[in-house]
């Protein structure tokens, strides 16, 4: 009977951990706000091997230990995008055609329990393929990433 209570309590704790503070199901207790059905991609050490990811899709980015990891983010139209990451130290740079963009300070996702993923809200004023550099993060083998569409761009395109 004690084992049954222990298992029931463990299940209840796991169920509570899988919900955000607003009561929504997050799918995975450690990755609140980042869907559990994410696709796996291997980040490349250069642009030729960098995978192309889409907005409003979730990914588990496999890292090469100790090396910067590049991925490419395709944006069809100018817009404001939240880059949600499970590690606040993961995002190192973001650029379009070699022009570096300013990276804002990350904000914790308030509706999530600890450890909280962070959101970088960036206004991407031009459509195109953006290069995202993650790491290097020694000893870290993967990073969860979602690029979530927020709304239309507030900036003027640079072309």
Structural features, described:
The protein is mostly beta strands and 159 residues long. The chain is built from one helix and eleven strands, in the order αβββββββββββ. The longest helix has 16 residues. The N terminus is likely disordered.
Chain-averaged pLDDT: 79
Please write the CATH class name.
Answer: Mainly Beta
Head-to-tail CA distance between termini:
70 Å
Query: Biggest sheet, in brief?
Result: 6 strands, mixed
What is the correct CATH architecture?
Sandwich
Number of helices: 1
Order of helices and strands: HEEEEEEEEEEE
Cα shape = globular
Helix content: 10-25%
Instruction: Fill in the CATH topology.
Output: Jelly Rolls
Give the amount of beta strand, in percent: 35-45%
Kindly provide the radius of gyration, computed on alpha-carbon positions and rounded to a whole number of angstroms: 18 Å
Largest sheet strand order = 1-3-11-5-9-8
Total strands: 11
- Number of self-contained structural domains: 1
**Estimated structural class:** mainly beta
**Unreliable runs:** 1-30
């Amino acid at each position: 009977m004690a084992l049954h209570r222990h298992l029931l309590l463990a299940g209840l704790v796991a169920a509570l951990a899988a919900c955000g503070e607003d009561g929504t199901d997050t799918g995975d207790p450690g990755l609140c706000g980042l869907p559990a059905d994410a696709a796996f991609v291997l980040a490349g050490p250069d642009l030729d091997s960098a995978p192309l990811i889409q907005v409003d899709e979730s990914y588990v980015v496999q890292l090469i230990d100790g090396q910067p990891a590049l991925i490419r983010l395709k944006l069809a139209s100018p817009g404001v995008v939240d880059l949600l990451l499970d590690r606040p130290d993961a995002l190192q740079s973001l650029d379009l055609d070699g022009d570096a963009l300013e990276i804002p300070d990350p904000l914790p996702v308030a509706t999530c329990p600890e450890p909280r993923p962070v959101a970088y809200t960036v206004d991407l004023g031009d459509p195109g393929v953006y290069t995202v550099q993650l790491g290097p993060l020694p000893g870290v083998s993967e990073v969860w990433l979602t690029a979530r569409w927020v709304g239309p761009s507030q900036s003027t395109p640079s072309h």
